[in-house]
Fold:
Amino acid sequence: MQKLFSYFIAYALATPVALLCADFEGSVNFKIDTGKGSPQDINYSAKNGLVRIDVKKNEGSSPSVILDAAKKEMIVLLPEQKKYVLQSIAEPGDPLSQPNSTEPALEKVDGTEKILGYDCGRYVVKNKDSTTQLWLTDQLGAFVGLGTGMGSRSSAPMSPPAPGGAPGRTTATNTGSWETLLAGKNLFPLRVITTHAKGQESSRLEATSVMQKSLPDSDFAPPTGWEKFDIGSTLRSMKRPPPPFPGSPN
Structure:
């Protein structure tokens, strides 16, 4: 679960801020199955350019991520410590806009389906080692992404950013992923299935419910009284040399 949480933080850092804007207000519940362990439930909430992603677990509480498009900020909530981390979001360059790019493309194919009451068109992203089928609707605004690495050039999930790394830096595995290909498009996935070259299903993302409703502003801000965790100060303190042993020369 911790690895999955790191993946969608990494994707959030690599997602253009313009993509965070959406007209949809409400929550979408997703179930993700990567074939490794039990399927994972994730709640995705959006309101006025704000997005919140919560990983659900059976016991205890897990961190959450809040993305603010207007302020270009990401907030990570740490409920067990009653702390939060604030980090800016940079806008990376678009590798798909480069001439002679060999990156995979999002292709619309025949076939439509109504999923949870929404009309979805069928799309395909073909990579060297896998094929991803997507059922996308234009009725829920833009999609930030969960960063599971499903359908990327590599079957492995994307690497989380190194501590203190620059926001907005993409990795080789997430470049050209289906999530990146949705950037700037008014398309929202309600089902995504990735199969290996031999036809074996390797991962599945599926929406289990969509609730269009008004959400309180407090859902998209740190709770009152929580302490802000300063990553910069922590990293600087880690770089300080240890104190000398008693009796040793300075």
